[in-house]
Amino acid sequence: MRLDIITIFPAMFTGLFDFSIIRRALDKGVAEIHLHDLRDHALNKYRNVDDYPYGGGAGMVMMAEPIVECISQLSNDRLYDEVIFLTPDGQLLDQGIANELSLKGNLILLCGHYKGVDERVREHYITRELSIGNYVLSGGELAAAVLVDSIVRLIPGVLGDESSALSDSFQDGLLSPPVYTRPADYKGWKVPDILLSGHEAKIREWRIQQAIDRTKKRRPGLLEDKD
Ligand code: ADE
């Protein structure tokens, strides 16, 4: 998978992809991440990429031309499956969307700033708009990083133990059951007997029940597919 991130702050991504599972995916060549400074596509020598909103009002708007220029240049070299705009008014990212995107080949991620992006870019170039939550960030960069992480770890071959992504919270619409490791007795707090029993079928059953109970208690909306 190739991910092209268009941003006015490429340096914000420094180090973010240098660790753990994402690092491994990049090292294996399963995923490539390319950063593009939108200012390289600015129309003037001041490298401006924003302008005042028509009709007045506070804040600046990201201009269409530099964005379109950058997207077009990338699209000349390869076909993109999606051009995704990170924005608080987009569709809420969830595990289902991450799963779907992890099967794609080439994605462009556009990070917004200021008051937003000229609507004509959204209408004519963006194929999907995603939000990572109902709160407003200073820009789309952190949202893009979250999206990249959620997708790349799911690309087949990235996780050592293939089944471990399948047992993540949300993969089956449930939260994960509690987990324990040694010691079996810590300060008198004991690991549930069932986990020490060696009885695989009973342990599986216990985990499923715990996942259901936990989901009912903490995130009941998930069981109705709306939380
Ligand atoms: N840009 C600013 N806030 C955002 C959010 N919550 N999700 C995605 N992009 C954003």
What does this structure look like?
- This protein has 227 residues and is α/β, with parallel strands linked by helices.
- It starts with a strand and ends with a helix.
- The longest helix has 19 residues, at 200-218.
- It has 9 helices and 9 strands.
- Bound molecules: adenine.
- Adenine binds next to strand 5.
Give the SSE map.
Blueprint: E1 2-7, H1 20-28, E2 32-37, E3 50-51, E4 61-62, H2 64-77, E5 82-92, H3 95-101, E6 106-111, H4 119-124, E7 128-131, H5 141-152, H6 163-166, E8 185-186, E9 189-190, H7 193-196, H8 200-218, H9 220-223
Parallel strand pairs: 1-2, 1-6, 5-6, 5-7
Antiparallel strand pairs: 3-4, 8-9
The structure holds adenine.
Adenine binds at residues 86-88, 112, 131-133, 135-137, 140, 143.
In short:
This protein is 35% helix and 18% strand. The chain is built from nine helices and nine strands.
Q: Provide the helix percentage.
A: 25-40%
Chain-averaged pLDDT: 95
Strands, count:
9
Poorly predicted residue ranges: none
SS-based class: alpha/beta
Secondary-structure element pattern, one letter each: EHEEEHEHEHEHHEEHHH
- Terminus-to-terminus distance: 30 Å
- What general outline do the C-alpha atoms trace? elongated
- Which molecules are bound in this entry? adenine
Strand content: 15-25%
Task: Give me the number of helical elements.
Answer: 9
User: What's the arrangement of strands in the largest beta sheet?
Assistant: 2-1-6-5-7
As a whole number of angstroms, the C-alpha radius of gyration is 22 Å
In this structure, how is the largest beta sheet organized? 5 strands, parallel
